[in-house]
Structures are given as C-alpha cells and as structure tokens.
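Workshop exercise sheet. Pairs work together: one partner reads the sequence aloud, the other fills in the structure field after running the prediction. Swap roles for the next sheet.
Pair: D.N. / O.F.
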Amino acid sequence: MSSLASLVKNTSNINEFKTKFSDFIDNNIIKYILEEDIKYANFKKKEYVLYTCGCLNKKYKISHNMHLKIFNGAKYDCKICQ
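Structure field:
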C-alpha cells in the first residue's frame, strides 16, 4: 500500500501514472497471484492424506479436512484396533 501511495504522490501527470500503475500491477499483484496463490491451489488439490496405523501397518486415506482436525488435536481411531 505504501508503494501505491508513493506512486500516486510522486506522479506528475495521468499518462505517467497509467504507465507506472500498469508496471506496479504487473510487478506486484500479478507476480503475487502467479507465485503465492498457485501454492495454495496446488495444496488444495490433495484430496486425502495417507495415515498408517501401528496395527498390521494398515494404511488409511484420511480426508484433508479430517487431517486438519487430527492435526489440531481431534482423536481418530483405527477401524481395526481402535
């Protein structure tokens, strides 16, 4: 925001502002979307997390939402050994 405020304060005419504002959008907003938001999209694509129980080395596909609940302290019992 401070960069944008500085751009407005330090621009002498509308044509210069258009050019600098376009550069600002390309170098900041677009770059952020392409680099940072893509990380979130790739993370969200995972539909499940693989958990392994100690009993018989049984593996379970846990939904991403359930994984977050377990991560935050929720209890999840193995279907075989409880």
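Discussion prompt: Residues 14-44 form the longest helix (31 residues). What would you look at next?
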